[in-house]
Amino acid sequence: MIRADREEYGKFCSMWTPRSPKNRLITLIGFGLMLCTGGSSTAQQAGENTGYRTFTNKAGKTIRAKVTDKKNDIVHLRMSNGITYRVATGTLSQSDQEFIDSWNPAEEHRARLQAVDLKELFSARGFKGVPLKLQNNQSLLEITIAGQRLSFLLDTGAQSSVIDRTKAKDLKLDIQENVGFAGGIGGPAGPIGMAFLPLITVGSVPKKNVTVAVLDLSGIVSGQGKSTKFDGIIGFDLLEDLEAVIDYKGRVMYLREDG
After folding, report:
1. CB–CB of 238/115 below 8 Å?
2. Distance of CA 57 to CAs 11, 62, 91, 92, 136, Å?
3. Predicted local distance difference test score (pLDDT) of residue 186
4. Do the Cβ atoms of 6 and 31 come closer than 8 Å?
5. Burial group, residue 148, by CB count within 10 angstroms (0-12, 13-18, 19+)
6. CA 199 → CA 74, 206, 208, 209, 238, distances in Å?
């Protein structure tokens, strides 16, 4: 069966022009590997969203590839294994010629971007999604400290992450007092403390050895109006450490887990 397929593939290849004889050999080898591993079906399914399609020449032979460039009467077709063929458009079916005539690289790039699944993209790179709750046009997320689930306000403009002083005392955190003085951030001025947290969990993402500022946030909370309540603020310092990527439309924040 494999031999028969290879013979058909060879007949088909004889009507196409690869970039070099070496690439032709690599193509045949790659095709054999694809048959043995069963990767063809997977590549085709994945290709539906990345510009791959089946091209047919006038002899009825087919190849699954995507257009990467066109110049004059020559189109570049790249297979999923990376091999690129330069093909005279006149040797293709009428529908393929019409597709190539209408092909626009800018539109193709935009379509690929729109087809990207952010969850799959970031999961493959070691990120985890943390849901954001929108309340009164503000983003809140869950952070667990000392076994208690708390609601934190997401504020990319805050340089430091903060926990409310009352909540810090309820959790019996060890607070180093009077390390600074804060004012002009939506509430009355007041002293700043610091607390070291051996472990916190942002959504489902653990983070070790975190230092947060301790500040009376009651004035800020009441200043938000409409009963917005939060126990702290996650700011730029922690977002940077976790390599945060925020998808506001999807209401998800992607964080990289401590390695």
Report:
1. no
2. 12, 7, 6, 4, 58
3. 52
4. yes
5. exposed
6. 60, 7, 4, 6, 13
Helix (H, G, I), strand (E, B) or coil at 208: strand
Q: Are 229 and 222 in contact (CB under 8 A)?
A: no
pTM for this predicted structure: 0.57
Say if residue 249's pLDDT is above 70. yes
pLDDT (tens digit per residue) in 81-128: 889 999 999 999 999 999 999 988 887 777 766 667 778 888 888 899
Query: What residue has token string 């887990």?
Result: 257
Closest CA to 246 of 137, 67, 122: 122
Distance CA 194, CA 76 (A): 61
Nearest in space to 218 (alpha carbons), one of 241, 257, 178, 186: 186
Q: Is the CB of residue 67 less than 8 Å from the CB of residue 50?
A: no
- Three-state secondary-structure class, residue 96: helix
**Cβ partners under 8 Å of residue 56, min gap 6:** 62, 92, 93, 96
Residue 173 CB neighbour total at 10 angstroms: 19
Q: Which amino acid is at 244?
A: A
Residue 171, pLDDT > 60, answer yes
DSSP percent split of the chain into helix, strand, coil, nearest 5 = 35, 35, 30
Residue entry with tokens 């005539």:
101
Two structure tokens written together for 135: 């309340």
Residues 6+ apart with CB under 8 A from 100: 67, 70, 75, 89, 92
